[in-house]
Write a structure and sequence with these properties.
49% helix, five-stranded antiparallel β-sheet
């Protein structure tokens, strides 16, 4: 049975933050009451309390596929699919709370925490199995006395795709941006062999997000995708439906269909992602032994500079996948530019190899070099040959 309404405790939380300001009207439903409180707190001009985080739309797919730093878009995608509602303490901006509008098997609304100072973040600290259970902790946050390190063990609900937290982490673990990159490079990640828990009943409020998590898991593990025949007739959210359609686009790309949205970007001189789109198309078509598109007409060969930039991008990604090099996604284009400059100064292939390795080892854009010179050399040659 769900726990009793926590409204009086919510009012105490309001008074701890807003003093004598008028308490907002709270519904009897615990989740609606919490949302009303958070909406009112979000409007307060205060350094204390909590504020809702605005994540209301599924990010454009091209950001996930082509942006240098897709982590924020991936996190927003996972949040939209999960339907969890994020909010933050004004005093702890690196920690995000997530309230679940879907009740668990006991009828309660759970609240989760994630550490998000470095995106896409990780699950963090305690989990609360009801809103009533969470309020003392929220009071402690306001008082500056909260212990964020008290870990809560998983239970059967958290091990199932019905859990909103499980949905977020399963999408982030599979990483849509990584899968799209793998399709372009022809290097699909190895299956983890991890099982997904049982699906909830179709009449469960959590069924839509569980369907998305199952589809993401199936595609990542097997490169197959099984969806309801008529997605428009399925009772799921707008964001969940868009997410599943994006998975269908990924499945078609796996089968050899060059994604139209990437090709359009590659041919659009005014699109800031054009260079990334060109490089993606170049890698995708090269792996399949096909002609690469140009920005002008969609056919023919890339210019020598574009071809070399695309090849060096593949080199960096191959070294990362082989764990010979560690580069933050935000610095990848900087490193490719440095490698391009180094390669352009070389008089022959042997000198180019030495210059590329030297540029990697000395680059400020590289976090760590794990391979020795021989390993880097072999991996670069193999990538160029591919």
């Amino acid at each position: 049975m769900p726990q009793d309404s926590p409204n009086e405790a919510l009012r105490e939380l309001w008074r701890a933050v807003a003093g004598k300001a008028k308490v907002p009207r709270l519904a009897r439903d615990p989740f609606k009451a919490l949302m009303a409180l958070l909406k009112a707190m979000s409007k307060l001009k205060s350094d204390e309390g909590f504020a809702l985080v605005d994540i209301s739309e599924l990010p454009p797919l091209e950001i996930v596929v082509l942006a240098e730093a897709p982590e924020l878009a991936e996190l927003a995608t996972a949040v939209i699919v999960s339907e969890l509602v994020p909010f933050r303490s004004r005093a702890h901006q690196d920690v995000t709370f997530y309230a679940d509008p879907c009740p668990d098997s006991a009828g309660n609304h759970r609240i989760y925490l994630r550490q998000e100072d470095a995106l896409p973040g990780i699950p963090y600290g305690p989990r609360f199995d009801s809103i009533a259970e969470a309020i003392p902790f929220l009071m402690a946050v306001v008082a500056g006395e909260a212990d964020f390190d008290d870990l809560t063990p998983e239970d059967d609900w958290e091990r199932s795709p019905a859990s909103g937290s499980s949905v977020i982490e399963s999408i982030l673990d599979a990483s849509p941006s990584l899968l799209w990159r793998a399709v372009a490079d022809g290097l699909w990640p190895e299956a983890t062999g991890l099982a997904l828990g049982d699906m909830p009943d179709e009449d469960s409020p959590a069924w839509g997000r569980a369907l998305c998590a199952r589809a993401m898991h199936q595609l990542a593990e097997t490169r197959e995708l099984t969806l309801p025949e008529d997605l428009d007739a399925v009772d799921i959210s707008k964001g969940q439906r868009a997410f599943l359609l994006n998975l269908k686009r990924l499945k078609l790309a796996i089968e050899g269909e060059l994604p139209g949205f990437v090709l359009d970007i590659a041919k659009d001189d005014k699109n800031p992602l054009q260079e990334a789109g060109l490089a993606w198309c170049s890698r995708y078509e090269a792996v399949r032994g096909r002609t690469k598109p140009t920005p002008k007409d969609g056919g023919g060969e890339l210019s020598p500079k574009e071809a070399l930039v695309a090849a060096l991008g593949r080199v960096v990604e191959a070294l990362e996948q082989q764990e010979l090099l560690e580069v933050a996604s935000a610095n990848r284009s900087t490193l490719v530019e440095q490698l391009f400059n180094a390669a352009g100064e070389a008089e022959n292939p042997e000198k180019m190899l030495r210059r590329l390795i030297g540029a990697m080892v000395n680059s400020d854009a590289v976090d760590e070099v794990y391979g020795d010179e021989g390993q880097l050399r072999d991996a670069i040659i193999k990538s160029f040959r591919a």
